[in-house]
Amino acid sequence: MSELVQVYLPMFLVFAVGAAIVAVFWLGGHYLGPKNPNPEKLQPYECGNDSDGARGVRMSVKFYLTAILFVVFDIEAVFIYPWAVLFKGLGWTGFLTMLAFIAALLVALAYCWKKGALEWES
Amino acid sequence: MPFLESHLLGVIVAAPFLAALALLFVSPTRPGAIRAISLVGALVSLAGSVHVALGYDLARGGLQRAERYPLVPSLGIDLSLAVDGWSVSLLLLTGVIIVTGVLASWTLTDRPRDFFVLLLVLVAGVFGVFVCQDLFVFFLFYEIAVLPMYLLIGIWGSRGKVPAAGPFAFVWRRFDVGGREYAAMKLTLMLLVGSAAILVVILALYSAAGGSTFDLQALARARFPRELQLWAFPLLWLGFGSLAGVFPFHTWSPDGHAAAPTAVSMLHAGVLMKLGAFGVIRVGMLLLPEGASYWAPTVGGVAVINVLYGAICALTQRDLKYVIAYSSVSHMGVVMLGAATLTVDGWNGAIYQMFAHGMMTGLFFALVGLVYDRAHTRWVPSMGGFARQMPWVASFFVLAGLSSLGLPGLAGFVAEFLVFLGAWQSQHYVWALAGVLGAWVTAVYVLRVGRDIFFGEGPRSDEIHHLTDARRSEWGALWVLGACLVVFGSYPRLILDFIHVATLEYLPRAAGAASALLEASR
Amino acid sequence: MNLLFGLSPFLAVGVGALLLMLAEAFGKPNVAPGVETTDAGAGRAGELALGAAVILVIGAVLSVAVWVAGPESLPELTQVAPHLVIDKFTLFFSFTLCVGGALAALLAGGYLPEHGIDRSEFFPLLLLSTVGAMALSAAGDLLTLFVALETMSLGVYSLIGLRRGSPRAAEAALKYFLLGSFAAAIMLFGLALLYGATGHTDLAGIGAAVRSIGSPGSTVSAGKILISLVLVLVGLAFKVSAVPFHQWTPDAYEGAPTPAATYMAVAVKSAAFAVLLRVLLVGFGDERLASWGAGWPPALAVLAVLSMTVANLVAGRQESVKRMLAYSSIAHAGYALVGVVAAMRSPEAVSAVAFYLLAYTVSTAGAFGALILCGSRGAEAVSYEDLAGVGKRHPAAALAFSLFLFSLAGLPPTAGFFGKLYVFRTAIDSGLYTLAILGLVNSVIGAYYYLRVMVYLYMREPAPGAPRAVTMRSGFVATALVAAAIFVLLLGMAPGFTLDMASGAALTAR
User: Fold this and answer.
1) Pick from A65, B10, B300, C271: most CB atoms within 10 A?
2) C440/B211 touch (CB, cutoff 8 Å), yes or no
3) What is the mean pLDDT of chain B?
4) Which residue intervals of C139-285 are DSSP H helices?
5) What percent of chain B has pLDDT over 70?
6) Which range of residues forms the domain containing residue A76?
7) Nearest chain C Cα distance for residue A38, angstroms
8) Domain match, A33 and A74 both
9) Which residues does chain A have within 8 Å of residue C40's beta carbon, measured at their own beta carbons?
């Protein structure tokens, strides 16, 4: 327990000091600053055009699709790396297993392709 | 026909069920064929029951005609059938009631096929309960007998209902009290609560007896620990008692009987309520003798409330079906009273009362159905002077009424006399007095209702010229039931011999436990 | 070879799923001439449903075959243990899951075209999700457990959202996805703690480590074990939708296409119960944790009582039959939890739960199927009013509906009765009288709302002028109903064989 405290205490102190500084400035500004609100001041913009359109930027759904496909097919590397390291020890069983894995990936790729997930223009 | 002879009990149970199956393949537009098949199924069961009764060896007694078909061997569940003296008498009762019930619903026009299918399934369950020697299958049959009631009342029940009255009228209206859907739901839910209690006890007994058999004989030999018996018996009593109309779990019964179509009322009051009482005695008192003798005073006390409360309620009702329904509650109290005495006469009387009341209430409900069918009202004050138009209906009503109030020479007298005798012997003098008082109140309401409907000048006496007496098949129902009341009333040994044999065999177990309890308390 | 045979139920469904996926993508759309479509699966729900059902039935048959051959006589199977533990417990559950999945596929074959949801992805997704569910029931290692759980759930998330353009469906899918991932995260945290505390990812090793607590030289911290137990329980309680982790259930079921709701109610729940039993008995089977005084039994007992009571009380007040069935599935989770609690003392309780879930699967799938049959395009029967008079318009549908409701209510002679009986019997054998009585009382309360459906089916006429749900005609739905009805009656009238099988499932779970 004491070991934990010794290691992490300085860090927590930094956090605490940081939080205290923020609190002091924020509360100080809130209570000490002069406040004269009027309708003009409460408007979001004092000048310029009225805002228009949606708040966020709309992205085409294609980006999400591409991103998720990238993630999905990228994961295979995570599995293939350790397999490659142990390749000799695993023998034919390991080879066939990986073959089955890649076959499943190919099926998935073919499916995506046929379904049109890889086409940008459509 | 050795096969038939050796599987007779199975045939009795299966006949209505097979008839119901056959009905599924008959076109619903041929009511003649539907009725004929139903009647055949019922008659086969009745004939079988009579044959069983004639062939029962009184000198040997005990369980006879044992049949056994394995059902779930891994849990020790067998479909094992056998009859003792009690079963013989109740089989006869059920056979008579179902045949007359089919006759009484001969004129049914609304979906007759579905009606008869459910009716026959129900009665197959009843037969099953009476001959079953395996506790688990006993429960299965019990449920099969109870559940079709929901649809039978809900679909074919009568639309007429009591107008809401009294300080809580708005509550009654809110829940549609008296309506057939209300009655069907109330009945089913209350009986299911009872079933849940029964199931807990059955499983507990099974577990306590080693978890290998549900056989009633084996369980009866198991000698359960006293604590188990003490908590299990009241659960069983209330569980089965909810079907037998034990106070305060009787409230489904008047609503249910009033809403049910004629044949269903006949079966329900005539046979089904007996299933409950039979369950209390056959399962509760025989398997849990110590619990039974410990709780017997309570059972008897509540039964006294049943007798008196039921009779007083019947006295105040103006709806004809409610009068008869409350009289059933009162008479089932007599059954439970007899059972609680734990004496030979009391038990004989209890079983005999099941038999006699079954016949009597069957006749009553058949008559009420007839009157309702003709007059389209069950409201007693709006009837009067019907005897001129339907003299035979009036005569049979008086006959049933006299049996109900215990006139010597009719079946009801034998039963009540034995029960009161048993109460006297068991030194519960109050029970006997209360029972006699109940019989007296019964006399008052039965005679008064009979007078109001059939005699005197009713408010509508000028409108009743269209009323007709019983017709064709209805005669069959009335004569059979009426004859039974007279025959078994004037020569009770016809049935009592069977009952007595079984009582002599079973009572020593329960009474032995009672005397042991007495010893322990000294 | 023996290894392949032992794994054949999993391989059959998995490979079948991939093949079906290709068949869906590379087939010819079956649309009216002149209609342009880029979706190769358009209009082919029928054939794909048939394919999916056949694959799942093969999976079920192979499960039975491996069962008969006896997984203990296939020593090669230890090669995949503990990642996949192929024992009789697993096989019983994979049979249940395949049956539930096949019924859902058949229902979808009739439902999707009828209601204009032309999404043939349904069937490959269903199969892949079923593979996940089967792997979940076999998982003896935390890693497979989590991967299988996610495989199962991801498929279901998309199944729910298939009715595109319906805000209800979008809400349902989002709700289930958010809460499901949340639950999965909580559970993952629990699993991580468990690994940290014991140094094992296999459940047997964890069990041994937990047992070593208190013995000299043990470094396993009881506090961490307890915390991880709580987290895992919470995660799984979400999946079985036990009160108070049930809030998503009615909304998700209501918004989802009915076959997807069916699949969630039967397969997801069964698989979650399988993994719950295995985790508790193998991982936390230590006497000190599996006792009435401390550990998981009292917590689960509370969940069970809450689930039964709350769900039953709320179900009675629903106006939508679909929501009612959703609450009923919550209540059934409660009954099954009673069996799980009893499993702390009686090994037989495991088989009781397994049998119960099989009975529940066929009854629930049947009830949803009958509901599907009661409404055709544009007028899906969802409320009680929609069912008014079906007893006259379509007697067969009403009869089937009644049978399944009887089974759900636990009335003899149906599968549900024996399921409840078996569960409550083991509870009484284990001395849990209060739980058994509460369960039975609750099944009576439940009977009220099941019977209420029958009131409408048989005793009410549709209000004059009200839109009348026309019953649909579909060979697929009818087949599913007949199959489910046969199961319900078979398990109800001759349960001996299945009971024996289920009791075989018990011995190997510990």
Assistant:
1) C271
2) no
3) 83
4) 142-160, 167-198, 203-211, 222-239, 248-255, 258-263, 269-278
5) 91
6) 61-115
7) 41
8) no
9) 114-115
